[in-house]
């Protein structure tokens, strides 16, 4: 198999007195759609922050595109839609176009030249998420689901190879969640973007993802989602429930 | 009414300095407001006051002529900016605490320096409220350099600045050097504040950085428009404020800020009327 896009080796992490991640090992390969699931407080967000290089590694190593993450220069290959994308300052005076244009920062050009090609990139990205008609609308005027699609456009405007999404469906109403996953599936299959989707909602993603990664401090399952589906409820709750128990025990 | 400003050297300096400040204060002010850091300008302006008082004291005691109070004001402002950045790092969960710390330190130092210089004199008064006759040729040149630096900074780093203001985490993932840009930004803010103090005074600097932005945000449809309108509002306030201040012999800080507040009031009223008219029209159309 080709070299992995991301490889995480022996990673452990703690905040203050508490272990949040214990001995994590896995690889993410080109073209996959990875669902990273786990209950609240299982260390999902910490793990992806380590993968993105915005949290300092304490133990173990993370490599992105073959390079240690500390030395990796992003330049648009890896992108991110954060949990907090919905929590930007409401009423921030910016249009959809401006928000998406933030994604084009790797080629840091001055304000004046090169406007046209940026515009084409922005329109293309918005088309992918079916938001082209909202180009000049104010971001604060859109619904939660629409905003989230704009943030995805912002994340893919540089045509990244890897896109990491942290709980992107928070604030999206349940009817639209399925559409949202279909959209991600399309980005994965048609544009070939490798995806890591973080969620605590395990039920609905198993039909879309190619790999499932169950995290609760340590990795409890990694593999084909069908393998997870074929498990009995008892086995599953053992995976999940047992570790939930440990967490409550810790406090 | 503008004749006097263009015919007397000293007034002309003030007028040009006012125009420059009317450009750079709202320009940086827009980023400060959307980052919810409006209070930073207040903190820094009081540290600048300490620097100005220190400069006046030095002038008086040692007739130190190489550095003017304006220079020491700039130096203190930059040092204050660095302390704020540092405190924000120390108190990660209570970042706003840096402002009262630096503000009270600034006022405390100012009182000490002013007392050592044997009390309040007219110079201090002009620094507190601004003055139409305070700008020398050398001051104007320095304000011009500062303006050039600030405009260049924003033009070249527009995208990273915008991205950091909107969503810091995403900006960091995109490879933006957040720390470096924050640092440069606060140094630029310090420079703008010390430049603006000549015109609007210590107490009202933050008003010139925030009022035009507050007005602009009500009518702008995009971030770029917010910047452009806030500069227009800033310039209108400076021009009207300086001329009326001169004719009525009022420190321009007061007239500029009152003009800004009136512009804000009119804009809010206009938006309100527009809103009501819109509802009525919709009602008619629905009927």
From TrEMBL, chain A:
Database matches in PROSITE patterns: ABC_TRANSPORTER_1, ABC_TRANSPORTER_2
Domain ABC transporter: 6-241
GO MF term list: ATP binding; ATP hydrolysis activity
Entry-linked Pfam families: ABC_tran
Listed SUPFAM superfamilies: P-loop containing nucleoside triphosphate hydrolases
Gene3D superfamilies from the UniProt entry: P-loop containing nucleotide triphosphate hydrolases
Keyword Transcription: no
Keywords: ATP-binding, Nucleotide-binding, Transport
Family of this protein: Belongs to the ABC transporter superfamily.
Name of the protein described by the UniProt record: Zinc transport system ATP-binding protein
Organism of provenance: Tenuibacillus multivorans
UniProtKB/TrEMBL annotation, chain B:
Membrane topology: Multi-pass membrane protein
Keyword check for Phosphoprotein: no
Pfam families the UniProt entry points to: ABC-3
SUPFAM superfamilies registered for this protein in UniProt: ABC transporter involved in vitamin B12 uptake, BtuC
TM segment ranges: 15-34, 64-85, 97-120, 140-158, 227-248, 254-271
Key words of the record: Membrane, Transmembrane, Transmembrane helix, Transport
Compartment annotation: Cell membrane; Membrane
Principal subcellular localization: membrane
One cellular component (GO) term of this entry: ATP-binding cassette (ABC) transporter complex
Gene Ontology BP annotations: response to zinc ion; transmembrane transport
InterPro entries referenced in this protein's UniProt entry, alphabetically: ABC_BtuC-like, ABC_TroCD
Protein family (similarity comment): Belongs to the ABC-3 integral membrane protein family.
Protein name: Zinc transport system permease protein
Organism from which the protein derives: Tenuibacillus multivorans
């Amino acid at each position: 198999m080709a070299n992995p896009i991301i490889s995480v080796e022996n990673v452990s992490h703690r905040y203050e007195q508490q272990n949040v991640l214990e001995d994590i090992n896995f690889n993410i390969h080109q073209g996959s759609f990875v669902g990273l699931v786990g209950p609240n407080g299982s260390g999902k967000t910490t793990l992806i922050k380590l993968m993105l290089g915005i949290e300092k590694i304490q133990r173990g190593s993370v490599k992105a595109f073959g390079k240690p993450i500390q030395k990796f220069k992003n330049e648009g290959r890896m992108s991110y839609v954060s949990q907090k994308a919905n929590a930007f300052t409401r009423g921030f005076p910016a249009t959809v176009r401006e928000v998406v244009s933030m994604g084009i920062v790797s080629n840091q050009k001055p304000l004046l030249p090169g406007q046209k090609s940026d515009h084409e990139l922005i329109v293309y990205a918005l088309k992918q998420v079916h938001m082209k008609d909202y180009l000049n609308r104010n971001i604060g005027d859109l619904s939660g689901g629409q905003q989230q699609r704009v943030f995805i456009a912002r994340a893919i405007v540089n045509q990244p190879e890897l896109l990491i999404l942290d709980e992107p469906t928070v604030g999206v109403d349940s009817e639209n969640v399925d559409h949202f996953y279909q959209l991600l599936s399309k980005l994965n299959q048609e544009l070939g973007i490798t995806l890591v989707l973080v969620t605590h909602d395990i039920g609905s993603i198993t039909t879309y993802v190619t790999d499932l990664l169950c995290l609760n401090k340590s990795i409890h399952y990694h593999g084909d989602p069908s393998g997870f589906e074929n498990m009995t409820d008892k086995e599953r709750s053992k995976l999940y429930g047992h570790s939930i128990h440990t967490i409550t025990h810790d406090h | 009414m503008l004749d006097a400003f263009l015919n007397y050297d000293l007034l002309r300096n003030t007028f040009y300095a006012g125009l420059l400040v009317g450009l750079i204060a709202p320009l940086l002010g827009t980023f400060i407001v959307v980052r919810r850091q409006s209070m930073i300008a207040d903190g820094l302006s009081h540290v600048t006051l300490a620097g100005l008082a220190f400069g006046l004291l030095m002038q008086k005691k040692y007739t130190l002529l190489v550095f003017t109070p304006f220079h020491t004001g700039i130096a203190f402002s930059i040092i204050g900016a660095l302390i704020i950045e540092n405190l924000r790092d120390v108190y990660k969960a209570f970042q706003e605490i840096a402002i009262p710390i630096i503000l009270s330190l600034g006022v405390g130092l100012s009182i000490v320096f002013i007392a050592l210089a044997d009390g309040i004199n007219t110079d201090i008064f002009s620094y507190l409220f601004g003055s139409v006759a305070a700008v020398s040729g050398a001051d104007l040149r320095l304000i011009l350099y500062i303006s050039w630096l600030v405009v260049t900074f924003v033009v070249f780093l527009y995208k990273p600045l915008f991205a950091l203001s909107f969503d810091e985490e995403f900006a960091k993932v995109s490879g933006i050097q957040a720390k470096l840009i924050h640092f440069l930004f606060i140094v630029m803010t310090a420079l703008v504040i010390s430049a603006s103090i000549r015109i609007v005074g210590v107490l009202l600097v933050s008003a010139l950085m925030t009022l035009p932005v507050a007005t602009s945000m009500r009518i702008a449809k995009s971030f770029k428009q917010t910047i452009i309108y806030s500069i227009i509002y800033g310039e209108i306030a400076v021009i009207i404020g300086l001329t009326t201040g001169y004719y009525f012999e009022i420190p321009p800080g007061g007239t500029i800020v009152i003009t800004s507040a009136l512009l804000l009031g009119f804009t809010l009223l206009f938006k309100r009327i527009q809103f009501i008219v819109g509802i009525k029209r919709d009602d008619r159309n629905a009927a």
